[in-house]
């Protein structure tokens, strides 16, 4: 019954554990729904259906004793829930775009490694901004690289400089203010002829019930 309601609300039940007197549910929900709204809907509909099916339940004021939410960050709240979701979208770049993305990804990782090395040598976090970083990347992407490098340095500092990681896997990150999309393309700033130009890249954004598109249009996080 609960599963039917969740399907109606496009809520994915990631895990369900039933005990003799209670149930634990791990739900993956769209940010358009508040936890309170979700639980109220589940309580209301299940109570109604159970009273219809079992008349001896009709005298009970409520068929639910209590409910609470545990966020993915470990905070308990009756109204709010923090969650992290990853939306995977397949890109269909042209050969030229593939080459540019590959070069930018390598440049991004190289920039982070260089910044980390500088911070380790100076034993303090960098004060550089994008204009101080000499890399063939858009300013917004440089800023993200600086942020990531600082994060790596803090871990190195916490471990008392015993291990200095060197990132190898090519990757490039745009924050949520620097990409946009429609039903067929994602628009990213790419380096073309030495300048950052917002470029449409074909992408498979449409899936069953448009779930990916609904998640992406809220634009929380990074791309």
Summarize the topology:
Blueprint: H1 2-8, E1 12-18, E2 23-28, H2 35-53, E3 69-70, E4 76-77, E5 90-91, H3 95-122, H4 139-158, E6 180-181, E7 185-192, E8 195-204, H5 211-216
Antiparallel strand pairs: 1-2, 3-4, 5-8, 6-7, 7-8
Organism: Aneurinibacillus thermoaerophilus
InterPro entries: Transposase_17, Transposase_17_sf
GO biological process, one term: DNA transposition
Verbal overview:
The structure is a single chain. The chain is an alpha+beta fold. The chain folds into 2 domains: 2-77, Transposase IS200-like (Alpha-Beta Plaits); 90-216, no CATH class. It has 5 helices and 8 strands; from the N terminus they run H-E-E-H-E-E-E-H-H-E-E-E-H. The strands form 3 sheets. It has a 4-stranded antiparallel sheet with strand order 5-8-7-6. Strands 1-2 form a two-stranded antiparallel ribbon. Helix 3 (95-122) crosses helix 4 (139-158).
What portion of residues is helical?
Answer: 25-40%
Report on the biggest sheet.
Answer: 4 strands, antiparallel
H/I helix tally? 5
In quaternary terms, these chains amount to single chain
Low-confidence stretches: 68-82
- What would you report as the Rg, rounded to the nearest angstrom? 24 Å
When the domains are counted, the total is 2
Global outline: elongated
pLDDT averaged residue by residue = 76
Main sheet: strand order: 5-8-7-6
How far from one another are the termini?
Answer: 36 Å
Number of extended strands: 8
What is the percentage of strand-forming residues? 15-25%
| Helix-strand sequence | HEEHEEEHHEEEH
């Amino acid at each position: 019954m609960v599963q039917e309601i969740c399907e109606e609300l496009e809520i994915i039940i990631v895990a369900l554990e039933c005990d003799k007197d209670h149930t634990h549910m791990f739900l993956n929900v769209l940010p358009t729904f508040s936890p309170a709204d979700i639980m109220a809907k589940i309580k209301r509909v299940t109570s109604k259906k159970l009273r219809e099916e079992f008349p001896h339940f009709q005298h009970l004021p409520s068929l639910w004793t209590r409910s609470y939410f545990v966020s993915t960050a470990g905070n308990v709240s009756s109204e709010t829930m923090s969650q992290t979701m990853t939306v995977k979208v397949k890109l269909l770049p042209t050969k030229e775009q593939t080459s540019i993305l590959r070069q930018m990804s390598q440049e991004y990782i190289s920039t982070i490694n260089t910044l980390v090395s500088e911070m380790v040598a100076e034993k303090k976090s960098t004060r550089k901004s994008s204009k101080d970083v000499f890399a063939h990347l858009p300013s917004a992407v440089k800023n993200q690289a600086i942020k990531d490098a600082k994060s790596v340095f803090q871990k190195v500092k916490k471990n008392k400089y015993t291990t200095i990681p060197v990132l190898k896997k090519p990757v490039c990150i745009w924050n949520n203010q620097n990409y946009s999309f429609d039903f067929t393309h994602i628009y990213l700033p790419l380096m073309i002829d030495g300048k950052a130009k917002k470029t449409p890249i074909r992408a498979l954004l449409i899936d069953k019930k448009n779930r990916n598109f609904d998640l992406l249009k809220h634009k929380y996080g990074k791309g």
